[in-house]
UniProtKB/TrEMBL annotation:
Keyword field: Cytoplasm, Exosome, Nucleus, RNA-binding, rRNA processing
Keyword Cytoplasm: yes
Species in which this protein is naturally found: Artemia franciscana (Brine shrimp)
InterPro entries per UniProt: ExoRNase_PH_dom1, Exosome_comp_Rrp42_subfam, PNPase/RNase_PH_dom_sf, Ribosomal_Su5_D2-typ_SF
Family, per entry: Belongs to the RNase PH family.
Xref: PANTHER family: EXOSOME COMPLEX COMPONENT RRP43, EXOSOME COMPLEX EXONUCLEASE RIBOSOMAL RNA PROCESSING PROTEIN
Protein name as catalogued: Ribosomal RNA-processing protein 43
Domain of life from the UniProt record: Eukaryota
Length: 221
């Protein structure tokens, strides 16, 4: 059930929505036709973007998001022991009628989801309960015996927005991370620079957990 982002900021709109919700629940249904205990249909897929090192997609009824992860090598000081991670979340205007009307606060939504995803990789950013252990070890992104590391760049795109955006964005990201494969690397003995071996075996990252997001609301008459 999608909720207009302007409802919270507009008490009159909230009142109207509450009336609709009460009327629907009296008939044993939500406004979108589901029963109170009926969940949205979910689907997850991965590994379908050929130009990305890892990719994932999650669809939750009429809300969907895709994620692509690219990797690249970066030179760092010898004191560095970890690779780097960055994430960008986008809600294009075509993903929702409300987005085209400017009613979705894209910056706020994107920033909050980016923080949640970053918290999964580097716990302690926002101290979210249950994320004390990182999803992956950034130390695994360092090329052994060199001062080179892998940079992971995740891009999440909400392709259709009808509520539960956090759930599908995180689901798409985790699916992409699970399908991620790092290219084989050969270190040049002369200058110590790693070279990507396109014909070598690719390796995935070990995930310490398989998190998922579930958004819900409490309604009390």
């Amino acid at each position: 059930m999608a909720v207009d982002n302007t409802i919270i900021a507009n008490p009159l709109k909230l009142l109207k929505y509450t009336e609709v919700l009460e009327y629907s629940l009296k008939g044993g249904l939500r406004p979108d036709g589901r029963t109170p205990g009926e969940a949205r249909e979910a689907a997850i897929s991965s590994g379908f973007i050929g130009t990305a090192n890892g990719s994932g997609c999650m669809k939750l009824d009429r809300t969907s998001a895709v994620c692509g992860i690219k990797v690249e090598l970066s030179k760092v000081p010898l004191s560095y022991t970890k690779g780097n991670f960055s994430c960008k979340v986008q809600f294009p205007a075509v993903c929702s009628v409300n987005s085209r009307k400017g009613q979705i606060q894209q910056t706020d939504i994107c920033n909050s989801i980016e923080l949640l995803i970053s918290e999964l990789i580097e716990p302690g950013i926002i101290n979210l309960p249950g994320t004390e252990k990182p999803l992956i070890k950034l130390e695994d992104l360092r090329i052994l015996d060199t001062n080179w590391v892998w940079n992971l760049d995740a891009n999440v795109l909400c392709t259709s927005y009808d509520g539960n955006a956090t759930d599908v964005c995180i689901g798409a990201f985790v699916a992409a991370l699970k399908s991620l494969e790092l290219p084989a690397v050969v270190v040049n003995k002369d200058d110590g620079k790693p070279l990507i071996d396109e014909n070598g075996p690719r390796t995935g990252l070990a995930l310490n957990s398989h998190p998922f997001s579930t958004t819900f609301a409490l309604y009390d008459q």
